[in-house]
Amino acid sequence: MIRGLGDAATKLGITVENKTSKGQPPGNKGSKPQGNSPGENNWEQIPMMYRAQVSGRCSLQFAGNNKDLERWRDEWVYPSSQNNNQPRYQRREPQLGLDGEIYRIKIQFPFRLSSNCGQDSILRPVLGKNGIPLIPGSSIKGLFRRACSPQEATRYCGDDKELTPGSLRFHNAYPIDDWAGTKKVKVGRPGEEISQTRYRIVDVIHPQQKRQVEGEDSPKALAMISLYQPTLIFELSSTDPNVKWEEIETILKQAVQQGVGGKTSTGYGLGGYLPNQAPILANYPLSIYFKGVGVSPLLRSDEPEFRPNLFKATLRGHVRRLLGGVCNNEKAIKQSENSFFGSSEAPGIAQIFWESQGEIYNAQDSNQTYEIAGVLHISASQTDLRFIEWVIKFAFVMGGFGKSWRRVFHKKFYPEYVRRRRIHIGCHWESTDSNLLNIKTSADLQNFLEDLYKICCQRLASRPPQAMDWRESWHPKRVAVYCKLVNRSEVVELFHNETFKTTPAIGGRNEGDKRPFFVSSVWHRMLPIDGRQYLEIVTVFHGDRTSNSPWRHRTQGNQLQPFIESLDNAQLNLTWGTRPVFDT
User: Whole-prediction pTM value?
Assistant: First the structure.
């Protein structure tokens, strides 16, 4: 009801009933009118979509235990019980190809697709009739123009300078079928399981670089909306009766290779393909095969999902570490980082796409794990690509990708712990790329790290090279890398020592904490070598010697020296960096 309308009706002798309409979306049922005057509006009956996006009315930004976000989502999806709880409002698949004056193309996407309407406190797409998401025709036109030759751009899209229109009309693209990513899952204890419906459109942005590298900032999870593995219908029409639709379809397929929507540099909107055809991939100058296992990332709905944007997040963090070890100008480091991976002001030069070749999830344990295989494709200029290739090798050799990458996969290297606790930790990555497999000895690792440091100095360095005062600046005076050729892990049990595991720099938590609240300053990697041998690598960041150093245990004192001595006792040798000098 419009504010004030009830009072006006009362003055005119009109009786107003404040009823909940039939078919009201979830979240409003059971609401009772409040207030003392007849016809007074109850703001709790206003759908979340139409409320002010502020705390106390409708706060959507944070992805934690956010009841506003849940109600906003349910009211928007407005599920139909007759349609397996999928969105009540969907567009049926239309006739493809030329249908009267409209030409339609159907394209499917293997990951997610994001776009931003720019209206709410949450990233979400533009909404059309009945709340169905859409990609505006103006965006499709811009995408199409980029794939055209100059002559094709003028003919089809028009000439802005001459103010002449093109022959094509670009209609909105829209999803068909289940655009909410609906999935039914069993929850509860065995024998007491109940079925719940979850929607995978609620996505999460989880920025970590500042917290992990600099040792500052607190963890935060921001919500966004992205379409989950959507199928889109692209519609066009033309003023030219002799238009060549086959040529236009070819150009549109080429345009889709560059990505649809936003966040394409992290894999969103990439890899679109026509039904029963292979994914449409751009020509990437660098492609690397990986396979990995590890602790699975979880959506807000607790659904496991291996998220390809973790590759960009890992590389971005490492670029920050590496450049922070050779340059003490934070502004210059940030500019270089943003030039690679983009910012809110401009896109980055690096385009990253993960071509999945298989995903398996294990939900039997207390925390779910994944097994993944695929090809990581990267595009950039030749000079920039060479630097990114060094960073990828650094990530692969020293740790891994994704959640819990600082630790070895315990199921493989410490199975006794997993059997005892039923909790998985870490990850393990392998590759067939020859450039990643040429490190087989401690001397190889030393040469690689020395060459990488020189390349970082050439890329961006103070004169002489000086490090930022960050927790994980990659400078030889702030880090020590130990390694040893082994058949089984010699030091994995150190991370479960009662004192070490309650030292923030090692175990990520203090004594008495039920879970880690800190980022560990130690990396542990079992790098695969020939046969069943591994190069066990332990990386120790020891630059923080302040009174609040994460190496201080609450009751047992500074644990840096005992930890280094434990590595010595296990006969791991210092390979790169500087052995820390201990206070006497």
Answer: 0.83
